[in-house]
Amino acid sequence: MTTWLNMSLQDGASPIMEQLIFFHDHVLMIMLMITTTVSYMMITLIRNKQTSRFMLEGQMIETTWTIAPAIILVFIAMPSLRLLYLMDEVHNPSLTLKAVGHQWYWSYEYSDFTKLEFDSYMIPQEEQQESTFRLLDTDNRIVLPMNSPIRMIVTAADVLHSWTIPSLGVKTDATPGRLNQTSFSISRPGILYGQCSEICGANHSFMPITIESVPAKYFINWVSKMSE
Ligand SMILES: [Cu+2]
Description:
The chain is an alpha+beta fold. It has helices spanning 15-47, 59-88, 216-226, and strands at residues 95-102, 105-109, 117-120, 142-145, 150-156, 161-165, 170-174, 180-184, 190-194, 209-214. Helix 1 runs antiparallel to helix 2. It has a five-stranded mixed sheet, with no helix packed on it. A three-stranded mixed sheet has the order 4-10-9, covered by helices on one side. The longest helix has 33 residues, at 15-47. The two termini are 32 Å apart. The protein binds copper (II) ion. Residues 101, 161, 196, 198, 200, 204, 207 line the site of copper (II) ion (CU). Copper (II) ion is lined by residues 101, 161, 196, 198, 200, 204, 207. GO terms for molecular function: copper ion binding; cytochrome-c oxidase activity; oxidoreductase activity. It is a multi-pass membrane protein. One of its GO terms (biological process) is ATP synthesis coupled electron transport.
């Protein structure tokens, strides 16, 4: 989760998010390169007093500064498309979780099991404990097995919502009447936080998402306890 003074992205908890962070840093390096070059050119242009009555065009430099940005764009577009298609693909999931957005809470259905569904409300401030995070913790956490490919089905019951976990690199719109699909695999155990990311009404800020990532055997224990 994000803590104070964390200006960058959260640590990746899935292989896709790690790749997204690499891509983000890669684009930032290119931007740094361009900003440095352009500022250097602008400053030298302002600071010197050279004038020339005869220099009207420079074919060579003009060709160069037209083609160079196109080549730079290819270096951004290629890894970007690679990631886009990696995220689009659903790789033989071992579990499906359906999230339904409501005003203003999430409800979840584990459709691989019978009668395993629950609502997930934010813990109100009056019921805070030492171990809970304000505006982020829920009364019922989603429990998921780590290191397993998981398919998310996201929809809404009333208005638009958006199911988001920044450390997994997942953000999927929840639209009434539609089933949106995404997938991820969590690479470590822990608690992952997210919030609704579509302005959905008065309590939009108060419908967080909490995932408890656990080893598979603990997940099976949890499932058998929940479906008793
Ligand atoms: Cu919402």
